[in-house]
Amino acid sequence: MQIQGHEVQETRCHGVFIHHLGPLDGRRLLLVLGRMNYWKKSPVIDRLALAFRQHGVTVCWHEPRAIRNARLRHDGLTSIRGRWSDVFQQRHVLTGRLLRRGIRCWLHYRYPKRPMFRRRKDGHTPADVVGELRRFLDGQAEASVDLLGHSAGCLAAVMLVDSPAVRRIVGIGYPFRHPGSADEAYRTAGLQSIGKHCLILPGDEDEYGTAADASRYPMADTVAVCSMPSDHEYLEMTPDAEQAMQQRVFEFVGLGGSAATEDHVAAVPGVVPTGPQGQRQ
Q: How remote is the C-alpha of 253 from its chain's centroid?
């Protein structure tokens, strides 16, 4: 697995698969929680994570078992097709189809969607994911861990706020509501009584909720909201906006910042700092 060209290590820690840049026994960690789509990355969020690493913070990505197995099945099929499977099937159509089907069956046996005799996919429900993350955090009692959530990862981060290892939470693209659906209380209930500081960075074109939408929900005084010029995916930002976003995050977690200053952050179009309840500062 690579992040922006950097080779990432994989370690099974307390039964949880963790990808990481830097040592897991470090004193300070950043745990990145996202949509769990291994094929769908946000370059902006990846660069933010790498900037944490440049500050000496160990950066970790959690990969649930079901997602890991799906990735390994996909990688296995891609590798086989690229080597000889396609050429063989062109020359021997029927035999090639049977061979590919057999390989696919073996990969599903080797990396199953669920353990044998279980009906649901193992490790894929929110409860499974949060349970795995708790086991990992319980093993980091001596470390100081910041959580960086994107989309559904924000919901998982809020559920983990009671872990003694967790310091602060940064939520990018917090899903206040699903587009086209009515409000669901579980999405924002945790923000009403969250006991640790949380910074939420919604895009100004985020269909899951902008800073203006966030102001409709009750939140604890520990929650701050800062609108960013982006959509929900955070796939692209202007260099100035991305620098301002990194500066805001680094100041929030106490790492200092980049060359940007508060005046620079405030001057970037679309960056609107707000306080608790989404009120403009």
A: 17
Q: What one-character DSSP code corresponds to residue 121?
A: P
pTM value surpassing 0.85? no
Rg (CA), the chain: 21
8 Å CB contact between 107 and 77: yes
Do 136 and 195 fall within a single domain? yes
pLDDT at 281: 44
Do 232 and 102 lie in one domain? The reply is no
pLDDT tens digits for 217-271? 999 999 999 999 999 989 888 999 999 999 999 999 999 754 444 444 344 444 4
Estimate to the nearest angstrom the gap between the alpha carbon of 129 and the chain centroid.
12
Residues 91 and 129 placed together within one structural domain of the fold: no
Measured in whole angstroms, the distance separating CA 140 from the mean position of its chain's CA atoms is 19
Looking at the structure, do residues 47 and 87 belong to the same domain, yes or no? no
Spatial distance between the Cα atoms of 248 and 51, rounded to a whole number of angstroms? 13
